[in-house]
């Protein structure tokens, strides 16, 4: 066989070898031409994936030179400013890696940039999933896996940030210690658990090293595997469009189109990170110096993904610390550092279940929502983002203060107010905008594009000519199913007996109304026909039915 | 239910129209320039080839930079080495990436294809078979008749992790002696010394308005100085005695307007290191808690709740500042049993 030219049906030799031993051809047949839909926002998950691969590669490089030890040494390397300074081996080896290993600083900087982009990409990816409703059945499990990946990503970032044992990261650990100690009953012991004794002790760097290069990456890797397995198993969602339905997936085959694009994406991300590592200094620990509990500089910032915690800590006033029966309960720390993030993250993790409970929808969804078609979900997402925005800004309030010459007090108070007001305002505005966009969609479907052309009728009336949408444009605007609140059945049955489970239903119906009472439904064929019957009087009828439409869909009382 | 389609506003006559629009089906495929024009396809091919060649050149560049531009000993030379190798790497990957993307977009088959989905749920028959098999398996174990096994098994499984967890938890916290939070190495007569040099401080050398960073004498000789420094570091400030308002029970803790306060923030433990002489305010750079040194280091702004603990000081016979005792309360962030 090897001497013959291969005929079309035969596998190439290495594949043939493997197939004879593993049945590989079955897998190839199943997967190589699998269809993957195309949309720029589907690349966000890939950006996370590829920056994680860069993290593994550069991380392997730098861990070969890093010494995870807190033993003290005296610096004797080339850096003049550090001559004779006492430092831990961890810090010393970081300097060695940066200044004496050719390419070492490049790898360190690439690693750090990759970490920032990794977590950024995870967050943006998550919001794309959120806003498009990709978390709906059957993908709730993948949402939870993804959410766990986010938490692990944060843990990975924080543990890595702490390894060089410089002043900044040491202070970060000290803050962590302070937060841990505030936890009721077990806080002090938890602090000992983490540090192996009193802060800082001799153990935290080696421990974080194990966490950072073994424990968390192994979990991330495993979960990414599971995450992608589920993406393949459930097939990717697709945006609505002509020809795309809940029962198909339209796109390009994995081999070669998708694979080539993916490889290209990976290379580009690798290349961009190399460019960043080459030109943009990040975490220049030699400017900060080795960890010492005593010095600190104003304006020091943690990595961006930790800023929201920092901001929450800054905003909470101190009087919340209380003493109960002789025991100290530091609510001024617990609330911002444990309770609030805990609630925010838990509600994010549980969101798919909350929404499906409110909608009563247990069907599979493979066509994504346009964010406007889920106004309350979209508004909740923006509202959550606004909370994070305020917290992140609060985490940089000293920089804002010096930059704009404002007083810290004034800024802090502004943020204290904003953290309550802004989410509500954002929610309201975002919901109105979404409903408005839906109304605009209706308008377009019913009356077509404005052409800017004005025509005069025999009667002397002027009207603007509207060009009807073509089928595909129209489909995009009418394809979604209207979502309506779950109706509440009466409290008593026909014989006047109180129905069990009524209370639960009543709550559920209220939640459901919160989600779906205000809505704009897609145009139906009948409505379009009616609008067309109105003929040239589009623009007049448009303004007439606009107002009742809004009031008609408010039904806060009708179901209650 | 009031949710009829009329609700959205238009007076609709009910005719035979469908309830919803029909999906119009996939739009027809528009060929690209490279599909119809051989010249354009050739040009695309050349672009892809050139991009891959540039990528290869980038790799060669990175290797050349590695051998010819060592990091040297100055920040500038290190930057240069980093940059050149980095440019090489970046070129390698960005060009290769651009090549792949361009290739896939302009030359690979761009007909959209359709694949059908099947519901995730298994068909009824499979579900029934699976459930039957599990039932058969369960009955093979005989657990329903032999309840004792179940109890014993659960006990064994529940206990098993302890063999791992107890040694781990036992050792991971060192000696678990959290009473160490309550003490520092300060004691009666111990000299205040400069941080980090360890030189003792004469009271007469501390001028009004100045702030001195202080560690206890002998700290640097400890086996693990940072553990102790994290608790014992102190800020010494001299105020004009007229500005100093001392609580009655703390009179005698200062010396001629010189006061010593713990430098560990009572919020979550950052060093409180920024002293503003004019206002006598001490600011923690981490979350901006602000302490009033002229008034018992009370919190006047920010997330901390408690004043900084004060170290009672005096001078020894040679005029050097010394501690009168340890702090009278635990320093640093609050913890559950702090007041016990
Ligand atoms: C280590 C972090 C993560 C990586 C590497 C990752 C990677 C990916 C990739 C490559 C895809 C397919 C392409 C795409 O839709 O973007 C995907 C899909 C998905 N991800 Fe993630 N992801 C991560 C974190 C998350 C998070 C934080 C969430 C949400 C909490 C999440 C939820 C999902 C869901 C539900 C899908 C299916 C999307 C669909 O079919 O439309 N992922 N992920
Ligand atoms: S640690 Fe000082 S204000 Fe938070």
Automatic annotation (TrEMBL), chain A:
It is a multi-pass membrane protein. It catalyses: a quinol + 2 Fe(III)-[cytochrome c](out) = a quinone + 2 Fe(II)-[cytochrome c](out) + 2 H(+)(out). Residues 14-240 form the Cytochrome b/b6 N-terminal region profile domain. InterPro entries: Cyt_b/b6_C, Cyt_b/b6_N, Cytb/b6-like_sf, Di-haem_cyt_TM. It holds the Pfam family Cytochrom_B_N_2. The chain crosses the membrane at residues 42-67, 113-131, 143-163, 213-233, 265-286, 333-354, 374-393, 413-434. Residues 241-436 form the Cytochrome b/b6 C-terminal region profile domain. It is found in: Membrane. SUPFAM superfamilies: Transmembrane di-heme cytochromes. Its main location: membrane. Residues 527-560 are annotated as: Disordered. Its EC number is 7.1.1.8. It comes from the Bacteria. Its cofactor is heme. Keywords: Electron transport, Heme, Iron, Membrane, Metal-binding, Transmembrane, Transmembrane helix, Transport. This is Cytochrome bc1 complex cytochrome b subunit. It comes from Actinotalea lenta. The lineage of its organism: Bacteria, Bacillati, Actinomycetota, Actinomycetes, Micrococcales.
From TrEMBL, chain B:
It comes from the Bacteria. The chain crosses the membrane at residues 47-68, 80-103, 148-170. Keywords: 2Fe-2S, Cell membrane, Disulfide bond, Electron transport, Iron, Iron-sulfur, Membrane, Metal-binding, Oxidoreductase, Respiratory chain, Transmembrane, Transmembrane helix, Transport. Its cofactor is [2Fe-2S] cluster. It is found in: Cell membrane. Its main location: membrane. InterPro entries: QcrA_N, Rieske_2Fe-2S, Rieske_2Fe-2S_sf, Rieske_Fe-S_prot, Rieske_Fe-S_prot_C. Residues 231-322 form the Rieske domain. It is a multi-pass membrane protein. Iron-sulfur subunit of the cytochrome bc1 complex, an essential component of the respiratory electron transport chain required for ATP synthesis. The bc1 complex catalyzes the oxidation of menaquinol and the reduction of cytochrome c in the respiratory chain. The bc1 complex operates through a Q-cycle mechanism that couples electron transfer to generation of the proton gradient that drives ATP synthesis. Belongs to the Rieske iron-sulfur protein family. This is Cytochrome bc1 complex Rieske iron-sulfur subunit. It comes from Actinotalea lenta. The lineage of its organism: Bacteria, Bacillati, Actinomycetota, Actinomycetes, Micrococcales.
């Amino acid at each position: 066989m090897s001497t013959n030219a291969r005929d079309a049906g035969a596998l190439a030799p290495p594949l043939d070898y493997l197939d004879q031993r593993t049945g590989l051809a079955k897998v190839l047949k199943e997967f190589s031409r699998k269809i993957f839909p195309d949309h720029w926002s589907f690349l966000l998950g890939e950006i996370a994936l590829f920056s994680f691969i860069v993290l593994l590669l550069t991380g392997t490089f730098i861990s070969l030179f890093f010494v995870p030890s807190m033993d003290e040494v005296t610096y004797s390397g080339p850096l003049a400013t550090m001559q004779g300074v006492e430092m831990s081996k961890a810090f010393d080896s970081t300097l060695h890696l940066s200044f004496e290993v050719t390419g070492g600083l490049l790898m360190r900087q690439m690693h750090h940039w990759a970490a920032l982009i990794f977590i950024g990409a995870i967050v943006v990816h998550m919001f794309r999933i959120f806003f498009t409703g990709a978390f709906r059945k059957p993908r709730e499990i993948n949402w939870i896996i993804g959410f766990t990946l986010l938490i692990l990503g944060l843990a990975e970032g924080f543990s890595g940030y702490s390894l060089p044992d410089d002043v900044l990261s040491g202070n970060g650990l000290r803050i962590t210690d302070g937060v841990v100690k505030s936890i009721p009953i077990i806080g002090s012991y938890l602090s000992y658990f983490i540090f192996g004794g009193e802060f800082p002790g001799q153990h935290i760097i080696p421990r974080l090293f194990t966490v950072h290069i073994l424990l968390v990456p192994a979990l991330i890797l495993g979960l990414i595997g599971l995450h992608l397995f589920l993406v393949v198993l459930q097939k990717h969602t697709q945006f609505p469009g002509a020809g795309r339905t809940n029962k198909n997936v339209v796109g390009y085959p994995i081999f070669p189109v998708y694979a080539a694009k993916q490889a290209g994406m990976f290379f580009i991300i690798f290349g961009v990170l190399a460019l960043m590592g080459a030109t943009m200094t990040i975490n220049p620990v030699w400017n900060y110096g080795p960890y010492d509990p005593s010095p600190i500089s104003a304006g020091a910032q943690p990595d961006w993904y930790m800023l929201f915690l920092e901001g929450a800590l800054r905003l909470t006033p101190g009087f919340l610390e209380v003493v109960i029966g002789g025991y100290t309960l530091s609510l001024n720390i617990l609330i911002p550092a444990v309770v609030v993030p805990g609630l925010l993250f838990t509600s994010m993790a549980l969101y798919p279940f909350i929404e499906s409970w409110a909608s009563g929808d247990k069907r599979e969804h493979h066509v994504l929502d346009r964010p406007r078609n889920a106004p309350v979900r979209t508004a909740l997402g923006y509202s959550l983002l606004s909370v994070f925005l305020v917290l992140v800004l609060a985490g940089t309030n000293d920089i804002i203060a010096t930059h704009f010459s404002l007083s810290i007090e004034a800024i802090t108070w502004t943020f204290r107010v904003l953290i309550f007001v802004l989410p509500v305002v954002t929610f309201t505005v975002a919901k109105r905008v979404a409903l408005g966009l839906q109304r605009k969609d209706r308008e377009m479907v019913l009356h077509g594009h404005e052409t800017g052309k004005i025509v005069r009728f025999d009667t002397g009336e002027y009207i603007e000519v509207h060009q009807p949408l073509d089928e595909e444009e129209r489909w995009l605007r009418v394809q979604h199913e209207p979502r309506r609140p779950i109706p509440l059945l009466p409290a008593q049955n026909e014989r006047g007996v109180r129905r069990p489970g009524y209370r639960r239903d009543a709550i559920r119906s209220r939640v459901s109304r919160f989600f779906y009472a205000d809505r704009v439904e897609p145009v139906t064929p009948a409505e379009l026909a009616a609008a067309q019957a109105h003929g040239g009087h589009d623009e007049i009828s448009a303004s007439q039915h606009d107002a009742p439409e809004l009031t008609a869909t408010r039904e806060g009382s009708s179901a209650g | 239910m009031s949710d009829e389609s009329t609700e959205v506003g238009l007076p609709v006559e009910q005719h035979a129209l469908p309830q919803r629009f029909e999906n119009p089906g996939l739009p027809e495929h528009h060929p690209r320039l490279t599909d119809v024009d051989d010249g354009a396809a050739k040009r695309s091919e050349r672009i892809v080839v050139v991009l891959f060649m540039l990528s290869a050149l980038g790799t060669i560049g990175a290797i050349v930079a590695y051998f010819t531009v060592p990091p040297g000993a100055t920040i500038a030379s290190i930057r240069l080495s980093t940059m050149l190798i980095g440019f090489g790497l970046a070129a390698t990957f960005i060009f290769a990436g651009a090549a792949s993307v361009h290739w896939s977009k302009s030359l690979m088959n761009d007909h959209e294809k359709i694949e059908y989905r099947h519901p995730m749920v298994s068909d009824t028959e499979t579900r029934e078979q699976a459930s039957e098999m599990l039932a058969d398996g369960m009955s093979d174990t005989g657990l329903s008749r032999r309840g004792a096994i179940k109890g014993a098994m659960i006990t064994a499984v529940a206990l098993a992790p302890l063999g791992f967890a107890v040694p781990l938890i036992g050792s991971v916290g060192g000696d678990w002696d959290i009473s160490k939070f309550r003490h520092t190495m300060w004691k009666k007569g111990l000299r205040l010394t400069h941080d980090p040099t360890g030189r003792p401080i004469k009271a007469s050398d501390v001028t009004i308005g100045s702030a001195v960073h202080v560690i206890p004498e002998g700290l640097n000789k400890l086996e693990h100085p940072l553990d102790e420094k994290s608790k014992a570091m102190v800020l010494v400030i001299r105020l004009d005695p007229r500005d100093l308002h001392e609580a009655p029970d703390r009179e005698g803790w200062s010396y001629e307007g010189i006061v010593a306060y713990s430098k560990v923030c009572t919020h979550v433990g950052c060093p409180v290191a920024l002293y503003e002489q004019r206002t006598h305010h001490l600011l923690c750079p981490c979350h901006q808690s602000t302490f009033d040194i002229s008034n018992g280091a009370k919190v006047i702004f920010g997330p901390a709740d408690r004043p900084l603990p004060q170290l009672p000081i005096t001078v020894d016979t040679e005029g050097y500042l010394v501690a009168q005792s340890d702090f009278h309360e635990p320093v640093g962030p609050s913890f559950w049993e702090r007041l016990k």
